[in-house]
From TrEMBL:
<dbReference type="GO" id="GO:0033499">
    <property type="term" value="P:galactose catabolic process via UDP-galactose, Leloir pathway"/>
</dbReference>
<protein>
    <recommendedName>
        <fullName>Galactose-1-phosphate uridylyltransferase</fullName>
        <ecNumber>2.7.7.12</ecNumber>
    </recommendedName>
</protein>
<feature type="binding site">
    <location>
        <position position="225"/>
    </location>
    <ligand>
        <name>Zn(2+)</name>
    </ligand>
</feature>
<feature type="region of interest" description="Disordered">
    <location>
        <begin position="1"/>
        <end position="73"/>
    </location>
</feature>
<dbReference type="Pfam" id="PF02744">
    <property type="entry name" value="GalP_UDP_tr_C"/>
</dbReference>
<dbReference type="InterPro" id="IPR001937">
    <property type="entry name" value="GalP_UDPtransf1"/>
</dbReference>
<dbReference type="InterPro" id="IPR005849">
    <property type="entry name" value="GalP_Utransf_N"/>
</dbReference>
<dbReference type="InterPro" id="IPR005850">
    <property type="entry name" value="GalP_Utransf_C"/>
</dbReference>
<dbReference type="GO" id="GO:0008270">
    <property type="term" value="F:zinc ion binding"/>
</dbReference>
<feature type="binding site">
    <location>
        <position position="97"/>
    </location>
    <ligand>
        <name>Zn(2+)</name>
    </ligand>
</feature>
<keyword id="KW-0299">Galactose metabolism</keyword>
<feature type="compositionally biased region" description="Low complexity">
    <location>
        <begin position="1"/>
        <end position="20"/>
    </location>
</feature>
<dbReference type="GO" id="GO:0005737">
    <property type="term" value="C:cytoplasm"/>
</dbReference>
<keyword id="KW-0862">Zinc</keyword>
<feature type="binding site">
    <location>
        <position position="174"/>
    </location>
    <ligand>
        <name>Zn(2+)</name>
    </ligand>
</feature>
<keyword id="KW-0808">Transferase</keyword>
<dbReference type="InterPro" id="IPR036265">
    <property type="entry name" value="HIT-like_sf"/>
</dbReference>
Length: 407
């Protein structure tokens, strides 16, 4: 297995070491930047001893088949059919978590990380919803009409779900959380996000890169180890398509950027602005949907994570940790103790390939399904059935509470 180690590449402060797992998936270690007095780091373990077959090997003599996706004729949305994920790992015991590093002296059987320790590590998901298979045609001509002859053509469209799914482990400490990590580690995580956005965005099948974290069992997390994910979609997601449609109409009418105008309007109004730093603004959006929701946007117009400067990445680490700490104090249990907030955090970035790319702007959205201690917001009839959102509170109330608990 080959490996490459680089220091300070693609805007990173620390080092980056890439290798391949036994079945051919890529794995990349990202190390925190060394500070004065730190000892040099030993080389990472790169060899994966598991007897895994090549992930693209034939199955029962038949060529490997990657996941497929179908277009909903009523909405135009593409829906990947990831049936193999039904058998993915679900809430394993702490001593069998596949995201933990290899235990010193223990047999390495089914863990995904060969080394006994790491700062941040990224690897291709073993159970991906999206996967590009070598030799498969992934262009527009790969979209096929599977309608019966009696049905008008173009009604039922099917295509390879030719993307990529990666896991980003934030720490080798199984009991940690992103909120418990220091600024130096969060900066390394930002560097990893930017690196993977650039790498996956350059793949010929990618139209959009989505970086996100699911935190908390209420969200549906299947592995409690601190981690996030990166998806490279072969299509624009519905939310991004809606945003670009609105941004295009706004630009045509005003000549300005919709997302720039939204940030400026929030700053001018001020009521929903939660935190301001030199490079970042945290605010509750004017039409917030979730019981708890906050957005973080750079002051400077930036299209995507790779476009952030060193100073912006450093400042984000400070600002984001303050926001996460406030979110964990948002709700209080009957005994007066804070309630750890389950959340989803996702980066909205300009699409990798679209003539409207310049209308995008980087933004992190953080929101929670918790509407009170022990109470969840269920997406029932109106939200799920009609995609018609109804809020349980007001953005101003959310912002007021976040200001109260912000350290």
């Amino acid at each position: 297995m080959s490996a490459t180690t680089q220091t300070g590449t693609t805007g990173t402060k620390g080092s980056r070491t890439a290798t391949r797992l036994a079945d051919g998936r890529e794995l990349v270690y990202f190390d925190d930047a060394l500070e004065p007095g730190d000892a040099p780091r030993p080389p990472h373990e790169l060899h994966d001893p598991r007897p895994l077959p090549d992930r693209f090997a034939p199955v029962d003599g038949a060529p490997f088949q990657g996941p497929r996706m179908r277009r909903d004729p009523l909405t135009g949305d593409w829906i990947p059919m990831a049936t193999h994920r039904m058998n993915r790992t679900l809430l394993p015991p702490d001593d069998a978590c596949p995201l933990c590093p290899r235990r010193p002296g223990a047999d390495y059987t089914d863990g995904e990380v060969p080394d006994t320790a790491y700062d941040v590590v990224v690897f291709e998901n073993r159970f991906p919803s999206l996967l590009s298979v070598p030799g498969e045609d992934h262009g527009p001509e790969s979209v096929v009409d599977v309608s019966p002859a009696a049905v008008p053509g173009g009604l039922w469209l099917d295509a390879p779900a030719a993307g990529r799914c990666e896991v980003v482990c934030f720490s080798s400490d199984h009991d940690a959380s992103l909120a418990s990590l220091g600024e130096r580690r969060v900066r390394t995580i930002v560097d990893a996000w930017a690196d993977r956005t650039a790498a996956l965005g350059s793949l010929p099948t990618t139209r959009e890169v989505f970086v996100f974290e699911n935190h908390g069992r209420e969200i549906g997390v299947t592995l409690t180890h601190p981690h996030g994910q990166v998806y490279a979609y072969p299509y624009l997601t519905p939310r991004t398509e809606q945003l670009l449609t609105q941004a295009s109409a706004h630009h045509e009418a005003t000549g300005r950027s919709l997302l720039r105008d939204v940030l400026d309007a929030e700053l001018a109004d001020g009521r929903r602005v939660v935190l301001e730093t030199e490079h970042w603004v945290a605010y509750v959006p004017f039409a917030a949907r979730w019981p708890v929701e906050v957005h973080l946007a750079p002051r400077r117009d930036v299209l995507d994570l790779p476009g952030l400067t060193d100073a912006e990445r450093d400042d984000f680490a400070t600002a984001y940790l303050r926001v996460l700490a406030a979110l964990d104090r948002f709700f209080v249990a009957p005994d007066g103790s804070p309630v750890a907030l389950p959340y989803i955090a996702g980066w909205s970035q300009a699409p990798a390939r679209d003539p409207r790319r310049e209308l995008g702007r980087l933004r992190l959205e953080v929101f929670s399904v918790l509407r009170g201690p022990g109470k969840l917001k269920y997406l029932a009839g109106s939200e799920s059935g009609a995609s018609a959102w109804i809020s349980d509170t007001t953005p101003e109330r959310i912002a007021t509470r976040l200001k109260e608990v912000l350290a």
